[in-house]
């Protein structure tokens, strides 16, 4: 039983202003508007807003009547009580305040170089945070009617044992058939299926010897159902990257993977094949306009190769390798599914035990009681066995089965090589805990003779590689442009002050990086050095004019060719005529008289650049120079952004915050580290990674042998499982030692997690009990009474119309997201294969099952829908490219609700009386 703490309605009229759905979206809209306003205050003026958050920022409660009550309540109820932060001496919050002020300065100074696409990314990130907070408050604060429904469901609709078991486990097992369908669909992106299916070895004779080169066979099926098989070398992927980066500067394309340096050539080629497949998929996922672009379509369709017997045999071998990886992954999933079924028999007992007083303590005390993993009760042993299989399956997928396995393995091996395990082991053996902490900090943060620290090198190695690549681009572009004044003008603009830039760029520093008019504005500006001559400005102006004319012609021609190319109603004869000639025409339209020279010249040596410039080979120099200046601007912006981020991370107050965080998180753990023997556990971790590297290399060798023999060998997946099982005793020994010496740290962490759940369930981070009735209190608002008290009855009809408009608006947003999921799953346009439909229907059934279970624990249908959207946003970040200009145009417009907007201040007071006052009591 539970009690509802709410404000009573002064009007007992039986007619309610809203139905249940309208009431929910009315509440959601007001929560969203108010929380968005508070976050904007924090972003624009952190110095004035931070004291309103309370806690350590307002020790004397001067800002009790906070201008950001929603943020203050979450901060004081969830953030400040975090167990590690409770021991902070206060320095962290002061330094954090200084950090936010420095961040605001950099953000303001960087407005001269924030392009529209970057602003969209920031907006999406901010919106995700807003939606998460609105969702939490929407769950925490229920209306009287919603609480009544919640209580009725709790009393009359208990969950079945099977549902409880699946909910406790998290995610249900996936069948092998469904997994296979999912994997098969991974290559269908925006209606286009892409796969690197084989390798064709080409032998070329150079000066003396013959050399073998690998051509990667790419099979693609476009939206119209036409199939193509082309051969591309590794260098062609690099050229595609450069061409796409120039044509679409608003997108940040990933770098092509480097060639694999394997012990045998054939093993390296197989690694390159899977890496390039993963790369071409990641490029295609950026945006639909990239997939349908001339460059990308030409890359997939130009110069179709005839299928030879050797190619067929090679493709069969590669297909067998891919199927073997999928079978091993499916086998893992099947075994995990069996363990799930075994766990289902015990979950009811575990849940009942955990819900009893002291249940969590008994669970963790078992880890401290039993010294050996084999001595644990059978239930816990089953859980550990299931965990081993899950972990081994993940390792197999990350380092062997996935297309990005080579990149993942390279990064892991590089980090492992940089880690000073032996030195850290010696430091951890020191008996003085503070000496240990100081030694660790000095080891990672020391900068001998002013050089970079070890932590800087570990964290920034990839960023510095990107900066180095961009600087090489700058050098080549400057040589290609051949005008120091123009190049200096672009560079000085990137680093110009805000006052100077404001004379060029409006809209708070945002600009469309594809707009070549910005380049003209920069070169014409008198506030940016150096001053340019009339001839230099005319060169850029003429370049833009000629490029615009060429673009108009190319767009017209491309529209005709693209319409014919995708037409499904062409006759067979027309298909034959166009299969070669039209693809060649598409390619020539972007390569000969109209394609900018920069992507081609980019690959030439500097010596060739000078020779070409002197011989007049660059026939399009005049109208390509503005493109080159645009690319130079983009490259300088990328360098500046990454250098600013590095400077912020490793300089000044940020370094102090980093040290403070290490101290805060390390101090509670240092009390148990000696008995837990962390030093030896560190070496156990090193041994595990050493063996993992050997297993990955062994898996590569086995794959190479399989390629040679065209037959299967013993499953390499079992090697991963054996590795995890071998090191399980060492891992459990560490867990046992830590929990044996635990003085309440882990219990506090669990209680903190429970406080978040309690907040979303009741509105209070700590359970509140009505001691007279011994019932749990829930934060509840009487929205019906609120409307009657604050809105004249003559306006009820308008209010209902606005609430209905909000319901329709949020419903349309939800349907747009679901349609987008269908497109990502490959169900857009002509890709509705039986496998795709089967996979999507399985997803729908799973979604409905989860929705039933969530409603069974008290969630409203609207809350379930919102959680679904949040889950979509969280797990589909790699599709952010889809959310660009196209989504901005297609996104439904929120309806105007002037009557509801007048209730914002009154709604804050309603929430204050129902919830926020409890934090001040």
The outline comes out as globular
Q: Helical amount among residues, as a percent range? A: 55-70%
The count of strands amounts to: 10
Main pleated sheet: 4 strands, mixed
Low-confidence stretches: 1-14, 157-186, 568-623, 709-713, 825-835, 877-886
| Total of DSSP H or I helical runs spanning 4+ residues | 38
Structural class comes to mainly alpha
| CA-CA gap between termini | 24 Å
Strand content: 5-15%
Question: Would you tell me the overall average pLDDT?
Answer: 73
Radius of gyration: 31 Å
GO molecular function, one term: phosphatidylinositol binding
Biased composition (Low complexity): 582-591
Pfam families: DUF3818, PX, PXB
Protein name: PX domain-containing protein
Notes on the structure:
With 921 residues, this protein is mainly alpha-helical. Among the domains are: 2-158 and 765-828 and 860-920, no CATH class; 190-307, PX Domain (2-Layer Sandwich); 459-650, no CATH class. 68% of the residues lie in helices and 6% in strands. It has 38 helices and 10 strands. Strands 1, 3, 9 and 10 form a 4-stranded mixed β-sheet that branches. The longest helix is centred in the middle third of the chain and has 47 residues, at 309-355. The chain is globular, with a radius of gyration of 31 Å. Residues 194-307 form the PX domain. It comes from Mortierella alpina (Oleaginous fungus). Residues 582-591 have a biased composition (Low complexity). GO terms for molecular function: phosphatidylinositol binding. This is PX domain-containing protein.
């Amino acid at each position: 039983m539970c009690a509802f703490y709410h404000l009573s309605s002064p009007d007992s009229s039986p007619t309610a202003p809203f139905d249940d759905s309208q009431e929910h979206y009315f509440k959601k809209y007001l929560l969203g508007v108010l929380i968005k306003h508070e976050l904007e205050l924090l972003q624009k003026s952190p110095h004035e807003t931070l004291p309103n958050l309370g806690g350590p920022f307002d020790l004397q409660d001067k800002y009790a009547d906070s201008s950001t009550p929603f943020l203050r309540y979450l901060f004081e109820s969830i953030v400040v009580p975090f167990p590690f932060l409770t021991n902070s001496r206060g320095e962290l919050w002061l330094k954090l305040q200084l950090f936010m002020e420095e961040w605001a300065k950099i953000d303001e100074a960087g407005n001269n170089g924030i392009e529209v696409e970057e602003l969209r990314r920031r907006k999406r990130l901010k919106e995700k945070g807003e939606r998460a907070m609105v969702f939490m408050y929407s769950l925490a604060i229920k209306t009287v009617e919603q609480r009544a429904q919640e209580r009725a469901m709790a009393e009359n609709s208990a969950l079945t044992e099977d549902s409880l078991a699946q909910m406790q486990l998290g995610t249900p097992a996936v069948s092998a058939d469904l997994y296979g369908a999912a994997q098969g669909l991974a290559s269908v992106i925006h209606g286009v299926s892409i796969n690197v299916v084989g390798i064709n070895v080409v032998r070329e004779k150079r000066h003396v010897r013959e050399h073998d080169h690998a051509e990667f066979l790419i099979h693609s099926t476009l939206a119209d159902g036409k199939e193509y098989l082309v051969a591309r070398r590794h260098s062609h992927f690099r050229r595609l990257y450069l061409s796409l980066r120039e044509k679409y500067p608003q997108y940040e394309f990933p770098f092509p993977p480097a060639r694999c340096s394997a012990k045998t050539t054939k093993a390296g080629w197989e690694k390159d094949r899977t890496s390039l497949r993963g790369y071409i998929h990641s490029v295609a996922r950026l945006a639909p306009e990239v997939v349908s672009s001339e460059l990308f379509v030409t890359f997939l369709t130009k110069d179709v190769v005839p299928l030879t017997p050797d190619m067929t045999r090679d493709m069969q071998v590669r297909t067998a390798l891919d199927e073997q990886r999928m079978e091993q992954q499916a086998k893992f999933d099947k075994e995990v599914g069996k363990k799930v079924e075994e766990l289902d028999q015990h979950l009811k007992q575990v849940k009942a035990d955990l819900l009893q007083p002291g249940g969590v303590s008994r669970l963790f005390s078992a880890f401290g009681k039993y010294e050996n993993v084999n001595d644990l009760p059978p239930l816990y042993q089953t859980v550990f066995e299931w965990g081993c299989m899950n972990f081994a399956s993940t390792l197999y997928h990350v380092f062997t089965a996935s297309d990005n396995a080579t990149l993942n393995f390279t990064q892991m091996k590089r980090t492992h090589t940089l880690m000073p395990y032996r030195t850290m082991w010696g430091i951890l053996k020191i008996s003085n805990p503070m000496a240990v902490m100081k030694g660790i900090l000095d080891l990672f943060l020391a900068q001998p003779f002013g050089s970079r620290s070890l932590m800087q090198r570990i964290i920034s190695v990839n960023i510095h590689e990107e900066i180095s690549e961009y600087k090489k681009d700058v050098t080549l572009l400057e040589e290609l442009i051949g005008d120091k004044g123009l190049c200096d003008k672009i560079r000085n603009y990137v680093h110009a002050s805000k006052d100077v830039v404001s004379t060029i760029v409006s809209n708070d520093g945002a600009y469309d990086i594809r707009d070549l008019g910005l380049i003209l504005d920069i070169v014409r500006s008198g506030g940016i050095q150096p001053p340019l001559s009339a001839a230099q400005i005319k060169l850029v102006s003429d370049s833009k004019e000629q490029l615009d004319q060429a673009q108009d012609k190319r767009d017209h021609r491309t529209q005709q060719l693209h319409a014919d190319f995708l037409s499904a109603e062409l006759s067979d004869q027309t298909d034959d005529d166009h299969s070669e000639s039209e693809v060649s025409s598409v390619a020539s339209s972007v390569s000969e008289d109209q394609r900018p020279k920069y992507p081609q010249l980019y690959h030439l040596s500097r010596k060739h650049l000078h020779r070409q410039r002197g011989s007049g080979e660059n026939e399009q120099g005049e109208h390509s120079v503005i493109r080159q200046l645009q690319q130079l601007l983009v490259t300088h912006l990328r360098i500046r952004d990454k250098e600013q981020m590095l400077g912020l991370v490793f300089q000044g107050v940020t370094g102090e915050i980093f040290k403070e965080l290490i101290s805060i998180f390390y101090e509670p753990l240092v009390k148990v580290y000696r008995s837990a023997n962390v030093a030896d556990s560190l070496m156990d971790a090193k041994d595990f990674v050493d063996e993992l590297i050997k297993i990955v290399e062994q898996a590569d060798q086995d794959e190479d042998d399989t390629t040679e023999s065209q037959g299967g060998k013993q499953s390499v997946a079992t090697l991963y499982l054996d590795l995890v099982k071998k090191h399980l005793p060492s891992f459990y020994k560490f867990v046992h030692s830590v929990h044996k010496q635990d003085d309440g740290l882990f219990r506090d962490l669990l209680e903190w997690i429970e406080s978040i759940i309690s907040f979303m369930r009741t509105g209070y981070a700590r359970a509140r009990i009505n001691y007279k009735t011994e019932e749990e209190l829930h934060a509840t608002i009487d929205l019906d009474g609120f409307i009657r008290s604050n809105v004249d009855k003559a306006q009820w009809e308008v209010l209902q119309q606005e609430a209905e408009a909000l319901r329709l608006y949020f419903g349309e947003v939800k349907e747009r997201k679901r349609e987008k999921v269908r497109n990502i799953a490959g169900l857009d346009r002509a890709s509705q294969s039986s496998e795709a439909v089967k996979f999507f229907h399985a997803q729908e059934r799973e979604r409905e099952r989860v929705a039933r279970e969530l409603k069974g624990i008290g969630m409203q249908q609207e809350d379930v829908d919102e959680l679904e959207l949040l889950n979509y946003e969280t797990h589909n970040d790699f599709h952010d490219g889809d959310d660009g200009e196209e989504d901005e145009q297609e996104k439904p417009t929120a309806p105007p609700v002037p009557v509801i907007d007048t209730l914002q201040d009154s709604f804050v007071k309603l929430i204050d009386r129902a919830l926020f006052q409890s934090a001040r009591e």
